[in-house]
Amino acid sequence: MAVVTIYRLAESCLSLIEGGDPATASSLTFNEIKIACGNVINQLLKTEYFSVNVASRESIPNGLCLGLYENIEVFSYNGKSKATLPIKPIKLPRNMGIWGIYPKYDEISYYDFDKEFIPLQMGQGSLAKSQPLINDLLGQIGYENYGMDIIFTKDIKTMYPDITLAMRLVIMDINLYSDWDPLPVLPEQEWQIIQEVYKLYSTQAIPDKIVDPTVDEQKGIPTPQQKANQ
């Protein structure tokens, strides 16, 4: 079974649009086709999620993956600490798109993946403070997510001035994959993706594949006036 990659899809799309081997003088670029393929795949996966997974009461859509992002800075913020998400993860129930946040306390140490910060839902930090037995989260440090910001329950930047973070985030953006990474796409969906991309560019006039500099290229269908002048 052939592995579906973004390079394979883009190469097939460009060859089909150009009517054979890609022309040297093509107005389309390979990167442009790759972006179009990524957009179609994203739409296909999300459509599948809403039409199939939601109907079957499945809360986690297919095609997700965990991305690891390191060296994220922390800043002091109103007596607490704040960090910014490097990308916007997919929205999942209970904010599970932010899978985990881990500390590295100084430049010479390693990320401690066994000491994950405690995730809290928005407003739970204030609720925990009102409870004497758990107002300090039993000595742990929690965080809440507000848009692209992560707000911690303590000022960890003051506690550890050289701290940086690593985050595991759930992503679905195919454009974050490299050219040769296997895509979360079924083999039977490969031709569907190629067809959708082809429809985007099939109406675009492609210049004739002429390499003779003394002959003008014919672009599109000539008008009646152009025919009369010939």
Question: How would you describe the overall organization of this protein?
Answer:
The protein is α+β, with helices and mostly antiparallel strands and 230 residues long. The chain has two domains: 6-59 and 176-208, no CATH class; 65-171, no CATH class. 28% of the residues lie in helices and 19% in strands. It is built from six helices and eight strands; from the N terminus they run H-H-E-E-E-E-E-H-E-E-H-E-H-H. It has helices at 6-17, 30-53, 124-129, 156-159, 190-201, 224-229, and strands at residues 65-73, 75-77, 80-84, 98-104, 118-120, 142-146, 149-152, 164-171. The strands form two sheets. A five-stranded mixed beta sheet has the order 2-3-7-6-5. A three-stranded antiparallel beta sheet has the order 1-8-4, with no helix packed on it. Helix 1 (6-17) crosses helix 5 and helix 2 crosses helix 5. The longest helix has 24 residues, at 30-53. It is elongated, with a radius of gyration of 26 Å. 16% of the residues are buried. The mean pLDDT is 77.
Which features characterize this protein?
6 helices; 230 residues; 28% helix; three-stranded antiparallel sheet
